[in-house]
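Can anyone check this?
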Amino acid sequence: MQWKRWITALVVLPLLIFLILKGGRLVFSLALCTVSIITLHEFFRIAFSNHTPAVPPLFTLWTYASGAGLVLLAPSHGLPAVVAVVIIHCIGAAVMSIFRFSISQDAPLVTLKQAFALIYIPLFLSFIALLYDGGSPEGIRWIFLLLLIVVTGDTGAYYVGSYLGRHKLCPSVSPKKTIEGAVGGLMCSVIFGAGYTLMFLPVMSLPASIVLALVTGLVGQAGDLFESEFKRVAGVKDSGGLLPGHGGFLDRIDSLLFAAPTAYLLKDCLLS
């Protein structure tokens, strides 16, 4: 399993770095849009795994379309466009549920899951596009900082937990995660995140960079555990199999989904 994990990382990482450095607003947004749709598909597979009758394709297609619009409009039109898309989506989903209710009284539950999926995945991903700032030099540095905090935290938690883990963190949700692993992951996030900030984002002070890395890393770990809840209920190990050794896209970006909006909001607070 480990060799698959590292081979996938070695293939994906150069492509990701090239995309961030050379992609620009449009290509970067299209890439996020693709990730959003794939991840939504994986989430629906988990969230509706025990659902009977099957959810009509119109419901999922509406979410895919809204999610794509949200991610694509965020970089050029900002948060007002994001809010507008969420509102339009929720109203549209509610109208569809009215027609579905005569067929099945599961309509409110389906609508809630659909609306939540839009917020959980495309909305949170749109903050990456906002942080990227059209591929500006500062935006690129912020994206690398975000990824560094999340990736080093995830990697640190995995290896520290594997070798030193003794006390379970939240066994009902994720039996293998340990307190030692969580602490090790946070330490890695803070050390690498603060070090990177001092070198490439000197506008931020050391205390501010530590707070940013600590809070973002902590929230990222919460995002990892939160996704595990859905897999636990659905009785699946991974959200998908597109990334050998890592599972699905949702498995890979679960921490990032929570960390991205957190970093975006903390950025303005800590720099003001």
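Reply from J.R.: I decoded it. Residues 31 and 112 are 27 Å apart (CA to CA).
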